[in-house]
Amino acid sequence: MVAVREEKNSEFVLVDRFLFRGNQLCIPECSLCLQIITEIHGEGHVGRDRTLQLVKASYFWPTIRKEVERYVECCRICQVSKGKATNAGLYRPLSIPTQPWTNLSMDFVLGLPRTQRGCDSIYVVVDRFSKMVHFIPCKKTTDAVKVAQLFFREIYRLRGLPSSIVSDRDTRFLNHFWRSLWKMVNTRLDFSSAYHPQTDGQTEVVNRG
């Protein structure tokens, strides 16, 4: 465990026998570090950089980056889903929307301060035609079925059923989300590569704002 410094400007603070570095809980170098990485990465297998961002949002230990990189590199599920595909070549552009709320994109803002109702994330839905946005409170642990329920309650109830939805979430999440929407035969879910501005740039710009 990192030692507590006595200076008033120390970045480490001891609270109820727990050591904090800002908002990060300091973890001793033990098997708990691996357990934290396993649980956070296992929620969506989002890759090395995103996993590191999620872990560092709440925890700190000196070798955190090295251990996250090593774990993700050895993750069998990530290796199988990655396959031998590459990002070489040009991406096929999305069709241009012709009317509001028929072509949507969705994404999530994670790791926010927890509200009284336990929400610590935001489900973001953007209309690609009008650029209007719905911000829907949710939890980092919200699964695909509950996200589909949020979509029906907050979007479908007000805007109707879209003809396409763009998302850069991992394939397993989207499969569960799609199965929850299978009765809506006029909806098509378009996959995109994470952080690719030509497909999902509008949602990324809203998240950064």
UniProtKB/TrEMBL annotation:
Q: Which organism is it from?
A: Acer negundo
Give residue ranges for domain Integrase catalytic.
Answer: 96-209
Listed GO molecular functions? nucleic acid binding
The record's section on InterPro entries has: Integrase_cat-core, Integrase_H2C2, RNaseH-like_sf, RNaseH_sf
SUPFAM superfamilies in UniProt: Ribonuclease H-like
User: What is this protein identified as?
Assistant: Integrase catalytic domain-containing protein
Biological processes, Gene Ontology terms: DNA integration
Q: What Pfam families has UniProt attached to this entry?
A: Integrase_H2C2, rve
